[in-house]
């Protein structure tokens, strides 16, 4: 009986996780610029992957598989924000201006927070 | 007890226990003396190398964030779930109604590690991405006006500050 409940729960989570991964991909296609697309990709990174991992843990029949899936979860939590930040930071420092506001106009020079990295480097040099 | 973990001996103990647990959990060998011996040896060599490299300090083995980080991770997982629902709703809207915004949020954590945890938590939450870190502020790109909530993000920062307590700087030199 408990096997059947776990199996049904697991399949439901697979389906939900798969739908979230799909929604993330759809967002990457629909959103207007680089920064907004990164937000959509974040859905795939977090909830999509987590639910699929949880579903796999429910399918596992020994403890070691569950432990290893848990390690995958931990390393995903540690590494995915670092890669997202690296890409977004490179774009920001490289001068790609985000579309802002409801009318999605590119942020003007000097409007909103600007990259601080370049300014600090010249400070240090002087 | 928790103070002891911030001393050099405490960090060696914490790293040994953590590496030993990792080895045991990944291998699941409990009754093979030869393999267990090799495992113990590799743990010992790693701990010795870490000490020899001088990275057995408050950054390399950050014992101070425990146990406070555990309830924080739980809280963060719930927040990530809530944010996912919001972003998915934006994705599935028939006509997109985004209003992206750049904001600055103060990051007053005492250590670089605390600031990193805060910045990564913001990035991990869908709808907000840390694009730059100034000395004590995060530059954040938010997907909509509602997600660009400085108070809510500041509250996340306060939670990180709460478990990221200051440690005397001299300790890093001593190690």
From TrEMBL, chain A:
<protein>
    <submittedName>
        <fullName>Multicomponent Na+:H+ antiporter subunit G</fullName>
    </submittedName>
</protein>
<feature type="transmembrane region" description="Helical">
    <location>
        <begin position="51"/>
        <end position="78"/>
    </location>
</feature>
<dbReference type="InterPro" id="IPR005133">
    <property type="entry name" value="PhaG_MnhG_YufB"/>
</dbReference>
<dbReference type="Pfam" id="PF03334">
    <property type="entry name" value="PhaG_MnhG_YufB"/>
</dbReference>
<keyword id="KW-1133">Transmembrane helix</keyword>
<dbReference type="GO" id="GO:0015385">
    <property type="term" value="F:sodium:proton antiporter activity"/>
</dbReference>
<feature type="transmembrane region" description="Helical">
    <location>
        <begin position="12"/>
        <end position="31"/>
    </location>
</feature>
<keyword id="KW-0472">Membrane</keyword>
<feature type="region of interest" description="Disordered">
    <location>
        <begin position="103"/>
        <end position="126"/>
    </location>
</feature>
<keyword id="KW-0812">Transmembrane</keyword>
From TrEMBL, chain B:
<keyword id="KW-0812">Transmembrane</keyword>
<keyword id="KW-1133">Transmembrane helix</keyword>
<dbReference type="GO" id="GO:0008324">
    <property type="term" value="F:monoatomic cation transmembrane transporter activity"/>
</dbReference>
<feature type="transmembrane region" description="Helical">
    <location>
        <begin position="12"/>
        <end position="30"/>
    </location>
</feature>
<keyword id="KW-1003">Cell membrane</keyword>
<feature type="transmembrane region" description="Helical">
    <location>
        <begin position="36"/>
        <end position="56"/>
    </location>
</feature>
<comment type="similarity">
    <text>Belongs to the CPA3 antiporters (TC 2.A.63) subunit E family.</text>
</comment>
<dbReference type="GO" id="GO:0005886">
    <property type="term" value="C:plasma membrane"/>
</dbReference>
<dbReference type="Pfam" id="PF01899">
    <property type="entry name" value="MNHE"/>
</dbReference>
<protein>
    <submittedName>
        <fullName>Multicomponent Na+:H+ antiporter subunit E</fullName>
    </submittedName>
</protein>
<dbReference type="InterPro" id="IPR002758">
    <property type="entry name" value="Cation_antiport_E"/>
</dbReference>
<keyword id="KW-0472">Membrane</keyword>
């Amino acid at each position: 009986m408990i096997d059947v409940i776990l199996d049904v729960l697991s399949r439901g989570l697979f389906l939900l996780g798969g739908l979230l991964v799909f929604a993330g991909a759809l967002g990457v296609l629909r959103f207007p610029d680089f920064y907004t697309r990164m937000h959509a990709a974040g859905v795939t990174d977090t909830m999509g992957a987590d639910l699929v991992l949880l579903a796999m843990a429910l399918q596992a029949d020994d403890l070691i598989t569950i432990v290893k899936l848990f390690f995958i979860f931990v390393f995903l939590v540690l590494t995915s924000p670092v890669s997202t930040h690296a890409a977004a930071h490179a774009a920001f420092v490289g001068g790609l201006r985000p579309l802002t506001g409801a009318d999605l106009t590119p942020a003007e020079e000097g409007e909103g927070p600007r990259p601080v990295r370049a300014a600090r480097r010249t400070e240090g040099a002087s | 007890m928790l103070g002891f973990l911030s001393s050099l001996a405490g960090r060696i103990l914490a790293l040994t226990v953590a590496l030993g647990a990792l080895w045991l959990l990944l291998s699941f060998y409990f009754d093979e003396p030869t393999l267990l011996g090799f495992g113990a040896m590799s743990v010992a060599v790693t701990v010795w190398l870490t000490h020899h490299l001088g990275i057995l300090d408050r950054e390399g083995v950050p014992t101070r964030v425990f146990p406070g980080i555990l309830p924080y991770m739980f809280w963060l997982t719930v927040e990530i779930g809530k944010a996912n629902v919001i972003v998915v709703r934006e994705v599935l809207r028939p006509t997109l109604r985004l209003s992206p915004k750049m904001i600055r949020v103060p990051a007053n954590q005492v250590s670089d590690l605390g600031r990193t945890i805060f910045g990564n938590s913001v990035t991990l939450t869908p709808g907000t991405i840390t694009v730059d870190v100034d000395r004590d502020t995060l530059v954040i790109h938010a997907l909509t006006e509602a997600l660009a909530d400085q108070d809510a993000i500041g509250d996340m920062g306060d939670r990180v500050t709460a478990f990221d307590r200051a440690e005397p700087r001299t300790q890093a030199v001593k190690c």
